[in-house]
Amino acid sequence: MMDGKNIIYGETAMDKLAQQVRATGQPQDLQSLTERYLEILRELVLAGEQQG
Amino acid sequence: MTAGTIERPTFAGTDEQRALAEEIFQLMAAQARLFALEAPIRQTLKNLADFYARQRQMDPAEAARLIDEALRVNDHVFTRQETNGDVVFITSRRGRYVPPQVDTVHTFKQRLYEPENPLPVDDISVVVTTTRPALTTVEPVFISEYWQQQAGLIPVVAEPQVETPVEPVAETPEVAAPVSVSEPVAETVSAPPPAEPTPVNTVIVLPNGLQIDLRRPVEELMAQYGNTLMSQLRTAIENDPLRRLVLFGNQAFPEAALVSFGKNDLRRISDYIKEVGEPLLDTQIIADIFYHNPRQSDYEVFRFALNYRLSREKDFEFVGVEGARLWSVRNLPAIGTKRVKASEMGQLAGYIEEGFDDSLAEQSAESIRKSGQVSHVLTFFEWEYGILPLTRALAALLPPPLLADQRSAVLRFELPQHYVSTLVELRYPTGNRGGWLQGLEALFHDYLVPGALITLMRTDDPRTFAITYEEQEETQDRLLVLDETKKTPKFTFANISYACVVDTDMLVNQQQYGRLRNLKAFPMNERRKADLMLEHVFEVIGTPVGTRTEPKYAASFETLFVALNVLRPASREYLAHLLSEGDHFAPDASRPGWWLYTPPPSLEEEEDEEVDAEDFDDEE
Fold first, then answer.
1. Which CATH architecture has domain B342-467?
2. ipTM of the assembly?
3. What's the half-sphere exposure (Cβ side, CA atoms, 13 Å) at B607?
4. Shortest CB distance from B304 goes to which of A27, A30, A46?
5. Which residue from B558, B561, B454, B450 is spatially nearest to B507, judged by alpha carbons?
6. Which residues of A touch B206 (CB under 8 A)?
7. Touching check for B214 and chain A: CB below 8 Å?
8. CATH: 1.10.10, 2.60.40, 1.10.287, 1.10.3470. Which one for B15-91?
9. Are B388 and B434 contacting, i.e. CB atoms less than 8 angstroms apart?
10. Which of B55, B228, B405, B541 is the most buried (most CB within 10 A)?
11. d(CA B597, CA B542)
12. How confident is the model at residue B487 (pLDDT cuts 50, 70, 90)?
């Protein structure tokens, strides 16, 4: 879906990250937040690779 | 044509076919009399044939054949479709069926975000409607990526090639026909190379230039770049104008999902803290003011919301640590002595930030963290003012600040041997100003003396620490004290009993350091000049080895260390630095560990000498 060069770390898919954190119903510590965010970005990029 | 009349279609074919088609049209129009004029009316051939056969008492198959023929002839009225073997005829009340066309050329979304030929943007403010806010807060406004690119706020990203779906066009067979001219061309067209998967760039570049390949598992990335990734994400969250996520300490949550606290709530919290008279835990505030129960499912979010909101209020100050979030308000009683101002103490402890800290010479930071305790010998200054400079050894024991702009933390120090405790303020270092602990005055004066060997240790509670010391039989000695009862504070020796083990070299008693009664109790703002203090200390405690005209003093390093620490805190390393860098200090070659001080000739002294000479002349 997305090329790596189009991803702005800390900007791209932040809405999705916020949605996920909200869905957990608990404040998340920075480490788990970062892991969650990397997973989201990874899905974006690898989905693009599969489509390609 | 008026609104009430509908144009009647004309029918073709034989008389029977015309009559049949008209009958079916009227039948379908009657069925759909509430439909819009252009709305499609569908009916299957089977249904029509069954109806017609029942009416005419004939074979349904024959009826179907007649109807099919009649309606095929009138294809300008009836559109014939075959779906899964069923024949369906479509018409409308107007007498013709026009397939609906969805116009996607101009959508609101496209016009708003992706205009094909946008107007030039000279100023981004013309895109964003700014309204005069009732309050003086600047609300974040979402600006689409397109306009941000136009304004040069973010780099322009090349649009990926989007494959537009090819609509079925009637000309397709006509295009194919003229292609068959020569064989080589036909081969290239008929056998295109197999589509290889386009390699997608999975490497992202962080704002600090670090490149990360997202093809690698998250665990690996976190193990290698965890700190950078977390700090970059923290920065991005903190700088997000939309505040999609907000942070408090190490935790994050969407701001939109947080409970809001009104001014009345904040006033109640402030009043409660003032009433108790000391900083309060967030959990205590929640329980006592908001009656929120930790067993409620939204407790942690409520707690986060409270902490986040208070952190944004000027009247509240966070003085907690990880695991104990404490809140203070203005005008609470100060913790610790008022004799040393915070600005003065920051400068006095500045030597630690300058790198003259030898507190880790005997215990490594790692061993302190592991054992959770650190040993220390009290100096006179520390004992007198109840202040401990925040050395690296103490910093390894005490909790770091939880918030980036946190100024101080309030801890509780217990003396388990006497079942007493006190609040202590931990001031974190800022810039070139050192940090310190203050508020230990009463504990030190009641149970310890300068030179006492104490151990500071962690407890199970993250904000509570313990001070222990080794007890011994009660001893009485004449120890140095600062007499502040008179207008000018003065050092003197007084009888004091103590029952703690002391480092005898550091015990400031009259027997060892009797000359310190001549020490001048400088105001704190002068004590920050460490070189001047050392010169004064040297003159007071040093042994005169010069002449009347050329005075010179000698003192051992350890004596100077104890004496200097009466006036101000200083480490051995800092003292060594002052001695080696000072113009008037020199090591004593005859006695290792001893130093010499030659005071510079001053105008006052010269005048004194002149007076002395005159006196001498008079005597003669």
1. Beta Barrel (2.40)
2. 0.95
3. 3
4. A27
5. B450
6. 9
7. yes
8. 1.10.10
9. no
10. B541
11. 8
12. confident
